[in-house]
Design a protein that fits this description.
Number of strands: 14
Pfam families: Peptidase_S11
Strand content: 15-25%
Largest sheet: 8 strands, antiparallel
Region (Disordered): 52-86, 353-376
GO molecular function: carboxypeptidase activity
Keywords: Carboxypeptidase, Cell shape, Cell wall biogenesis/degradation, Hydrolase, Peptidoglycan synthesis, Protease, Signal
Number of helices: 11
Family: Belongs to the peptidase S11 family.
Shape: globular
Radius of gyration: 30 Å
């Protein structure tokens, strides 16, 4: 029989008077509430990681203010004030324009859309390899260093068994987009695969988390992608290096010939040189153009006017105009110089990196990128375990107070 005050399904002393049972239940309820409070505290204390990696949560900016998250949303983003000019209507699949000095993003369209970068990836290659190879080094090219160059690659004319200075090879990279020069420099840097790995490490250190490197020269390769955001980050970082900035702004150079002579090479960035009917852009200071059949035309362009430097990236215009990448970059830069003081930021190129001790001139410390094999919708084991232990402690208190020691099996 059930004692008075007991309920069906409740474990209790069957012969306990009702008033004793009522007292026990009242006290135990408070203990149970305490246990729930402990459980809730555990969840609140341990859950932040789960909250930032759970289903549907944007894995993007974690170190910046809310406007930066706009860049992870599809579409065009601009925050004009009164009197700001209208942002140009471009055909590019992705584009972005930013202030090179502050890192402020003025406007963007699908900024983190992952697309093949073509030879604009050479900006990251230079950022990674250039510091390790003094420009005055002379190197005799081994035939093996020119193996594996993709069919149809742009070449500057590097010849096997010919000696070149590293500075010659960089001219070949920046002006002629020479994949042969990239292969030789990568060999000096430890090899093709090592260079690709170091490029990805460099990208993460700069806060560029969309980039995957399979072929350091930018040649089409399965899985190789970047984004307008990342390429703009690379262009901006390059301009901070006097050596990089000098190469990317150079319109012409002399390259060693196979027979011991020399020949002139001209930068293929038409916005810099004004070649093929493309008017040169006033104030342009680089950075790098690219093209492959898979990527289409890509361009990172930087210009300086009246003490302001802007960097714009245009990826894969869908216009039938063969020079659309240059004209759309021109329109974007024109808009940026006119609108820079009349728009609010939609993000920052520094959004995914944090400044270490030592001030703004110190190298950045990257925010770790999510692992590709660690889906965000998995529960964090230590969150669940910790909450369970604290909640279990509360239940144990309840059982101890309600029925005495728990029987051992």
């Amino acid at each position: 029989m059930l004692a008075r005050g007991s309920r069906p399904g409740q474990r209790g002393d069957r012969d306990t008077p009702s008033y004793v049972c009522d007292m026990t239940i009242g006290f135990a309820s408070r203990a149970a509430v305490s246990g729930c409070v402990l459980c809730a505290a555990g969840l609140l204390a341990l859950a932040p990681a789960a909250a930032t990696t759970g289903p549907g949560v944007d894995p993007g900016p974690r170190t910046t203010d809310a406007p930066a998250s706009l860049l992870y949303r599809p579409g065009t983003h601009v925050r004009p004030r009164a009197g700001a000019p209208e942002v140009p209507d471009l055909s590019a699949r992705s584009w972005l324009i930013a202030d090179a000095d502050t890192g402020t993003v003025l406007a963007a369209h699908d900024a983190h859309r992952k697309l093949p970068p073509a030879s604009t990836l050479k900006t990251l290659f230079a950022l990674t390899v250039m510091p390790a190879l003094p420009s005055g080094i002379r190197h005799r090219v081994d035939p093996e260093e020119l193996e594996g160059i993709g069919p149809g690659s742009s070449l500057v004319g590097v010849a096997e068994n010919r000696t070149y200075r590293v500075s010659d090879l960089w001219n070949g990279v920046f002006l002629n987009s020479g994949n042969d020069a990239v292969h030789v420099l990568a060999a000096l840097n430890g090899g093709w695969r090592v260079t690709a790995e170091r490029m990805e490490e460099k990208a993460r250190a700069l806060g560029a988390r969309d980039t995957r490197v399979k072929s350091p020269d930018g040649y089409d390769a399965p899985g190789q992608v970047s984004s307008a955001f990342d390429l703009t980050v690379f262009g901006r970082a390059g301009l901070r290096s006097p050596e990089f900035a000098e190469y990317c702004a150079r319109a012409e150079a002399i390259f060693p010939a196979r027979d011991g002579g020399t020949y002139p090479i001209v930068n293929t960035n038409r916005l810099l040189t004004g070649a093929d009917g493309v008017a040169p852009y006033r104030g342009l200071i680089g950075v790098k153009n690219g093209y492959t059949s898979h990527a289409g035309n890509t361009l990172v362009a930087a210009a300086r006017r009246d003490g302001r430097t802007l960097v714009a990236t245009v990826m894969n215009p869908r216009s039938d105009d063969g020079h659309a990448v240059y004209e759309e970059a021109r329109a974007l830069l024109d808009w940026g110089f006119e609108a820079a003081d009349r728009v609010d930021p939609v993000g920052s190129l520094d959004a995914l990196r944090s400044a270490p001790p030592g001030g703004p001139e110190a190298d950045a410390v990257a925010v770790p990128a999510p692992r590709e094999d660690d889906p965000h919708d998995r529960p964090v084991w230590w969150t669940i375990t910790g909450a369970g232990l604290l909640g279990g402690a509360g239940v144990a208190v309840y059982l101890r107070l309600r029925w005495g020691p728990v029987p051992q099996d």
